[in-house]
């Protein structure tokens, strides 16, 4: 197993303290949890505008390269492709963890490929990787209330009610990412989509 290609798990978000609690930054939250699970710490990558952590899932398990781009969301693809090339990660072993307007809050969905649904981080990744066939962990944030602009909504913090569930959901999203690595997207869908 040690010789297998590593997995690149990309937590999408925006750098900076002012964005830390935003719905758009849930990818960073999941990446931080995955790093703590594998006993890794994020450090600045010299070659790419990103923070990187490396570890293994379990003893002798698959290698994980965790990435938090330090570019803004719409430029995420550049550091992703740079790290994918550096670590020799095939597109099939790339997982994007991101907020998803089209999934209700409280639900986590796994999928491979497909459109970007207006998500600038995914659009940038697809363009830079020249492929849409990477896996995604879609963290449901639901649609904005009333007439609120979706761009404003994703850049706002989770509500007090949502924050009560947030730690559990970040934990669940990390579980889904690990399941994709170990068992595959289809298995993760069967295991987690009903819950």
Automatic annotation (TrEMBL):
Cellular localization per UniProt: Cytoplasm
Assigned GO CC terms: cytoplasm
Residue positions of the active site: 24 (proton acceptor)
Record text on subunit structure and interactions: Monomer.
Broad EC category: hydrolase
Keyword flag Hydrolase: yes
Catalysis performed (reactions): an N-acyl-L-alpha-aminoacyl-tRNA + H2O = an N-acyl-L-amino acid + a tRNA + H(+)
Function of the protein: Hydrolyzes ribosome-free peptidyl-tRNAs (with 1 or more amino acids incorporated), which drop off the ribosome during protein synthesis, or as a result of ribosome stalling. Catalyzes the release of premature peptidyl moieties from peptidyl-tRNA molecules trapped in stalled 50S ribosomal subunits, and thus maintains levels of free tRNAs and 50S ribosomes.
Family designation: Belongs to the PTH family.
Classification lineage: Bacteria, Bacillati, Actinomycetota, Actinomycetes, Micromonosporales
Organism, as annotated: Actinoplanes italicus
Residues noted as binding tRNA in the record, renumbered to the chain: 19, 72, 74, 120
Gene name for this UniProt entry: pth
GO MF annotation list: peptidyl-tRNA hydrolase activity; tRNA binding
Family annotation (InterPro entries): Pept_tRNA_hydro, Pept_tRNA_hydro_CS, Pept_tRNA_hydro_sf
Pfam families membership: Pept_tRNA_hydro
E.C. number: 3.1.1.29
Name of this protein: Peptidyl-tRNA hydrolase
Annotated positions for site Stabilizes the basic form of H active site to accept a proton: 99
Annotated site residue numbers, Discriminates between blocked and unblocked aminoacyl-tRNA: 14
Entry-linked PROSITE patterns: PEPT_TRNA_HYDROL_1 (PS01195), PEPT_TRNA_HYDROL_2 (PS01196)
Principal place of residence: cytoplasm
Gene Ontology terms describing biological process: protein quality control for misfolded or incompletely synthesized proteins; rescue of stalled ribosome
Keyword Cytoplasm: yes
């Amino acid at each position: 197993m040690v010789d297998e290609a590593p997995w690149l798990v990309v937590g999408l978000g925006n750098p900076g303290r002012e964005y830390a609690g935003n719905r758009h930054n849930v990818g960073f939250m999941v990446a931080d949890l995955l790093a703590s699970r594998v006993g890794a710490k994020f450090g600045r990558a010299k070659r790419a505008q990103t923070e990187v952590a490396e570890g293994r899932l379990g003893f002798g398990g698959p290698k994980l390269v965790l990435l938090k781009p330090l570019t803004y969301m719409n430029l995420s693809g550049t550091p992703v492709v740079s790290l994918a090339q550096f670590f020799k990660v095939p597109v099939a072993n790339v997982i994007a963890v991101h907020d998803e307007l089209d999934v209700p809050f409280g639900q986590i969905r796994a999928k491979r490929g497909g459109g970007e649904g207006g998500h600038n981080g995914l659009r940038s990744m697809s363009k830079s990787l020249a492929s849409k066939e990477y896996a995604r962990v879609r963290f449901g944030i639901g649609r904005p209330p009333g007439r609120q602009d979706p761009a404003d909504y994703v850049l706002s913090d989770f509500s007090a009610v949502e924050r009560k569930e947030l730690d559990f959901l970040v934990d669940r999203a990390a579980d889904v990412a690990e399941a994709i690595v170990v068992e595959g997207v289809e298995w993760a869908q069967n295991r987690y989509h009903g819950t």
